[in-house]
Design a protein that fits this description.
The complex is a heterodimer. Chain A is α/β, with parallel strands linked by helices. Chain A has nine helices and ten strands. Chain A has a single domain, classed as TIM Barrel (Alpha-Beta Barrel). Chain A has helices spanning 26-36, 58-62, 79-93, 113-125, 138-146, 168-177, 191-199, 209-212, 217-237; strands at residues 5-7, 10-12, 16-19, 40-44, 68-72, 97-100, 129-134, 153-154, 183-185, 204-207. Chain B is an alpha/beta fold. In chain B, strand 8 (251-255), helix 13 (274-287) and strand 9 (293-295) form a beta-alpha-beta unit. In chain B, helix 3 runs antiparallel to helix 12 (229-246). The chains are: A alpha/beta, B alpha/beta. Chain A binds chain B through residues 21-26, 45-49, 52, 54-56, 75-77, 81, 84-85, 88, 104-108, 160-162, 209, 212-213, and chain B through 64-70, 119, 121, 151, 216-217, 244, 248-252, 290-291, 349, 353, 356-365, 367-368, 372.
Chain lengths: 262, 378
């Protein structure tokens, strides 16, 4: 049985999504995307620059085989702006996916739950597969699922903070209750954060800063890919439960076996 | 009458700390989880000046974390050099005998075309202080023309009213740059001899009006060299944090203009050397890690290349400080100040790339404006 990630009407084999900001060059970004094996790559509409190969992030990504582009609405302050950006992104990228990102505060970039919910309603109606970046709020996750989002993307920590899974207990609740894929986005610092996300049952992770700002982004992209696979395999294999006491590998009551109930 | 410093701006008691030679204060500042004004003051101190390399490393790591390995680029475009104000340090001052000019709509279009061919996507439109020749309607109409072709248009003009800022925002302007020049009211009075700009509090309050009027961001600065640098930098920090508290959706950026020799021959009364300017930039980066920090072509190639990514996240390129100046057909006028970095776009980008930094021209989109429909010429 294949272990695919189903988003909208598509199935992907990679569970690592890549963001494309912050790289030192387009070439470094493309090499990292390749090394990550990511099939879904987000790209900010604000970095689309058709006709300017030096500056354009979109063109080189669009040329990659096996990669589906997910325009994001980074920069939008409210639902109206995000809807406009999503529609323009779809027009330019020809992708049915949108990463809905609404952060009114340009400094900490934390997502606005109210505007995100309003925009998601409109975009779902408009036929998008909406992937909303959201606070790690289990109620909001269900609300976004109810209105038809293709996945939910709760944050592990603030974008670019590298603080890891600071929202762990909420993420566990979201994952436990979700019936759409849960993609943990933002804050991941290390491959072990990504592995841990997968081990607790997360469906995928989205990574950008941790790869883009590494000394060797290509190598780090491969490390994240391996960690995501390891974490997913571990989750499928079934982790042993945590225990307070040591568990003997040979049963202490073996001597009773002959006279036991059988 | 000299203006009174508002309470929220006053740099006391931090001024003493910023002048301190106590290495322990610097050590505490570097260990702080949430650096604030106390830590900022300590990082400006002479004691911190001896830890410049430590500060630089911290600044590099924080810049990379928040802005990645990228530098956003923009170009200034002077619309007019008419000015009714006498600022002692400025090449456009009312009493300077220079050629005055303001761009006509056709000249502006030519300038915009010239900037487009340089790949520029973010422009900063500048004027002198408010005059009947270049008043709010003129600026608004220029913004409208520029916004029809550029995704990101900002202005550095005179202090406007909240309604006027609202109008500029509707015309397609996304940000306002406005330097207080010096936060010391006495020095302010001494260096702004006459004209509308002489009103210290009107200028001080203008960035707040801009954000209230719907601007996405304001860029603050003190013209370093005009007043006591520690006083000005502490006030600048207070101004930035005050605005962030007051406007939770507002972006605040900080620029570091330094007084340079200009056409009128004035020199800095409080000279700021390279080391201290670098230290100030590091202190801002460490204490305000997510705030864009800007460095212009007033500075030398050596200093700019060194500071790119080392605290600095945004830079101007290929600048002209005459009215127009990008389109060779337009007659050049007197300059506001001298440029030190004369490199063209390609040469400057090559220098950034050699440092492992990606120059970013377009980092915004017209889709984020209320009005995206191009407007015909006024």
């Amino acid at each position: 049985m294949t272990d695919g990630l189903k988003l909208g009407d598509r199935i992907f084999s990679s569970r690592l999504l890549l963001g494309t900001g912050k790289f030192s060059s387009t070439d470094a970004m493309i090499r990292a995307v390749r090394a990550s094996g990511a099939e879904l790559v987000t790209v900010a509409l604000r970095r689309f620059h058709p006709g300017r190969p030096v500056d354009d992030v979109f063109g080189p990504l669009a040329a990659l085989e096996g990669v589906t582009l997910v325009p994001n609405t980074s920069g939008a302050r409210d639902a109206r702006e995000a809807v406009r950006a999503a529609q323009l992104g779809r027009e330019l990228a020809g992708s049915p996916f949108v990463k809905l990102e609404i952060h009114p505060n340009p400094h900490h970039l934390l997502p606005d739950p109210i505007e995100t919910y309003e925009a998601a309603k409109i975009l779902v109606q408009d036929g998008f597969f909406v992937l909303p970046y959201m606070p790690a709020d289990p109620v909001l996750a269900r609300r976004l699922e109810e209105i038809g989002c293709a996945a939910v993307m709760p944050l592990g920590a603030a974008i670019g903070s590298g603080q890891g899974l600071t929202t762990m207990s909420m993420l566990k609740l979201i994952i436990h209750e979700a019936s759409v894929p849960v993609i943990v986005d933002a804050g991941l610092r290390s491959p072990s954060d990504a592995a841990l996300t997968m081990e607790i049952g997360g469906d995928a992770v989205l990574v950008n800063s941790a790869i883009a700002t590494a000394e060797d982004p290509e190598l780090m992209a491969g490390a994240f890919a391996a960690a995501v696979k390891a974490g997913r395999d571990a989750w499928r294999a079934g982790l042993m439960p945590r225990s307070e006491a040591a568990a003997a590998t040979s049963p202490l009551t073996a001597f009773l076996a002959d006279e036991g109930a059988g | 009458m000299t203006a009174a410093l508002p309470d929220w701006l006053a740099p006391l008691p931090w001024l003493d700390q910023a002048g301190s030679d106590d290495a322990r204060l610097v050590e505490h500042a570097l260990r702080a989880d949430q650096p604030g004004i106390r830590e900022f003051a300590a990082l400006l101190s002479p004691a911190a000046g001896r830890r410049l390399e430590t500060l630089a490393r911290r600044a590099l790591a924080l810049t990379r974390r928040h802005f990645g390995s990228t530098i956003s680029l923009y170009a200034p475009l002077y619309l007019s050099n008419y000015c009714p104000t006498r600022c002692t340090y400025c090449g456009f001052a009312a009493d300077r005998r220079i050629a005055r000019h303001k761009l006509t709509p056709a000249e502006l279009e030519a300038e915009l075309s010239a900037l487009k061919t340089l790949s520029i996507e973010e422009i900063l439109l500048l004027t002198g202080d408010r005059t009947a020749v270049a008043d709010y309607p003129y600026v608004r109409d220029c913004v409208r023309l520029a916004a029809a072709r550029f995704p990101n248009v900002a202005v550095e003009v005179f202090a406007l009213s909240a309604d006027e800022y609202r109008g500029l925002s509707a015309a397609g302007c996304s940000a306002v740059t406005l330097y207080q020049e010096t936060y010391d009211p006495v020095r302010y009075e001494q260096t702004h001899l006459s004209g509308p700009k002489r009103d210290y509090l009107n200028r001080l309050d203008a960035p707040a009006r801009a954000l209230a009027g719907g601007m996405r961001a304001v860029s603050l600065g003190a013209l370093l060299g005009l007043g006591q640098p520690l006083f000005d930098l502490l006030c600048l920090y207070q101004h930035a944090t005050h605005l962030r508290r007051a406007f939770w959706k507002g972006g605040v950026a900080i620029s570091f203009p330094r007084l340079r020799p200009e056409a009128g021959g004035s020199t800095a009364d409080f000279p700021v050397d390279d080391n201290f300017l670098a230290q100030a930039i590091f202190a801002f980066r460490i204490c305000l890690p997510d705030v864009p920090l800007t460095l212009s072509t007033r500075e030398s190639p050596r200093f700019r290349d060194g500071m790119a990514g080392l605290g600095i996240s945004k830079m101007s390129v290929a600048s002209r400080t005459t009215v127009g100046g990008y389109d060779l057909e337009t007659l050049p006028s007197g300059a506001q100040f001298d440029i030190n970095d004369h490199r063209g776009v390609a040469a400057f980008c090559a220098a950034l790339q050699a440092k492992g930094l990606q120059p970013v021209f377009k980092n915004w989109d017209a889709a984020y404006r209320e009005q995206t429909v191009p407007v015909s010429a006024p």
